């Protein structure tokens, strides 16, 4: 796997599941409809706002029926919760260190908003510096599964698509769009119950198979070693 770049999802791949998502938590606090929840989720994941106040301002504009003060209070609470709950997968630091010594470059390709990045930096100093490329939805303004974010990752890597790999836990957000972009993909089945229907579709060949799959991060080094030959 010489001159390749391994792109990792954060989500439930390198991070432990944080429970309820940020958009769902905002939905609870502000009594949002399903349509509003989706709208809020799209904005918080693609807004370049680095402060919670500016993000709350943008959110107030798309949730015009809500009191801006209530929106600010909700964003402040969810921001703090997400910051405080950041936790790496127990094997992530060692895995990243090991892969960093290989011939491959490392990158992040993730739908994420600022408090999660801030939480990682605060709790795990230096971890993010292991990744040469950081293709993050909150910095680009679009998110997976948009082809544009995968194209941005390939461009950042500076190698042909077939020398890039996507490693993530979601078939719809990580695996399938990566393969459509010409990348290789490894499916990390850290949430098999959430992927059950898609697993069935892959097994029945309704959906294309990834290059490989692992039960969790511990199985990744062996898979990458095997695929390298």
Widest sheet: strand order? 3-2-1-4-5-6
Number of strands: 6
CATH architecture of the largest domain: 3-Layer(aba) Sandwich
CATH top level label of the largest domain: Alpha Beta
Poorly predicted runs of 5 or more residues: none
Order of helices and strands: EHHHHHHEHEHHEHEHEH
Instruction: Give the overall shape, derived from the CA principal axes.
Output: globular
Structural class computed from helices and strand pairing: alpha/beta
Major sheet characteristics: 6 strands, parallel
CATH superfamily of the largest domain: HAD superfamily/HAD-like
Q: What is the count of structural domains? A: 2
Question: How far is the first residue's CA from the last residue's CA?
Answer: 8 Å
Mean pLDDT over the residues: 94
CATH T-level fold name of the largest domain: Rossmann fold
Kindly state the percentage of residues in helix.
40-55%
The Rg value, from CA coordinates, equals 18 Å
Question: Can you put this structure into words, describing what you see?
Answer:
It is a single chain. The chain has helices at 10-14, 22-30, 34-46, 52-62, 68-85, 92-100, 114-123, 137-140, 147-157, 171-180, 196-203, 220-227, and strands spanning 5-8, 105-110, 133-136, 164-168, 184-188, 212-214. The chain is an alpha/beta fold and 229 residues long. The protein folds into 2 domains: 5-18 and 88-227, HAD superfamily/HAD-like (Rossmann fold); 22-85. Strand 4 (164-168), helix 10 and strand 5 (184-188) form a beta-alpha-beta unit. The radius of gyration is 18 Å and the shape is globular. The termini are close together. The model has no long low-confidence stretch (mean pLDDT 94).
């Amino acid at each position: 796997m010489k001159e390749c770049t391994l792109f990792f999802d954060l989500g439930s791949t390198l991070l432990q599941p944080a429970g309820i998502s940020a958009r769902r938590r905002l939905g609870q606090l502000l009594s949002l409809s399903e349509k509003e929840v989706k709208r809020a989720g799209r904005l918080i994941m693609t807004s370049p706002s680095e402060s919670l106040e500016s993000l709350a301002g943008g959110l107030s504009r798309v949730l015009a029926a809500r009191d801006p003060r209530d929106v600010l209070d909700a964003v402040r609470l969810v921001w703090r919760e997400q910051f405080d709950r950041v936790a790496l997968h127990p094997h992530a630091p060692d895995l990243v260190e090991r892969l960093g010594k290989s011939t491959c470059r490392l990158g992040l390709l993730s739908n994420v908003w600022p408090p999660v990045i801030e939480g990682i930096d605060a709790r795990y100093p230096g971890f993010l510096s292991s990744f040469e490329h950081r293709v993050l939805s909150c910095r680009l303004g679009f998110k997976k599964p948009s082809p544009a974010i995968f194209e941005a990752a390939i461009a950042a890597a500076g190698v042909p698509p077939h020398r890039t790999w996507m490693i993530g836990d979601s078939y719809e957000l990580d695996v399938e769009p990566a393969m459509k972009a010409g990348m290789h993909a490894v499916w990390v089945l850290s949430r098999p119950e959430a992927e059950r229907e898609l697993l069935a579709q892959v097994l029945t060949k309704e959906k294309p198979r990834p290059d490989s799959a692992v039960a969790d991060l511990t199985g990744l080094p062996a898979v990458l070693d095997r695929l390298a030959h």
